[in-house]
Design brief:
Length: about 240
Amino acid sequence: MADDKDNENETPAAPDEAEAKTPDAPQADAPQADAPAAEQPAAEEQPAADEAVADEPTAEAAADEPAADEPVAEAAPADAAQAPAAPEEQLSPKERRRRSRSKHDGESRPARSAQERHAERQATRKDKAVRRRARRLQERAKAAERRAAAPAPEPLPPVHAPVEGRRRMRQGIVISDKAEKTITVRIDVARRHRRYEKIVRSSSTLHAHDENNDAHEGDTVRVIESRPLSRTKRWALVDVLERAR
């Protein structure tokens, strides 16, 4: 009786639980659990494929890049051959010296004594003097050639032509003969006024040269214009017309 009660109290196990407890029973859910594991390698292979695609150059880039075996064409020499030669820049001597000094590498010269520096300056001056002399001789030769090739210039008229004009002559009365070889002559002038028709009398004095002291005070003399003989003498005695009484 007791055994029957125990058997009644025991409930039959669920079919699923019984199958789960049996080790040899096939598991129906095993393929579903393995499915994600099978998909995981495929997911890992996809980034690797993307990296491979990224590493591969595009068709346009491959077309632009030259092949490894193809020689690269040198365009620089062809361009240089086609381009015309640039004219040389004309530089002044000062600009040439400035550019030569700008190319100095900055290295200091070896130490030299005062005698060596003086000898170098003397040699430089001598070299410059030789070149300067040669250049001057060359310029003189070129100038002589130009003068020889140029046509003969027309003679210019003299500035002071040796033309002797008619010298003036005056007649007057000696008013003083005190100076040596000099007389003072008064020139009396009588002329008619242009408007009033009146006779206007005037006088002027001049100094004349008398080499022999021939004229005396009161004599009527004739004088002629001459070169400047002193500060005031511009006349010379010609002859004595009338002696004073």
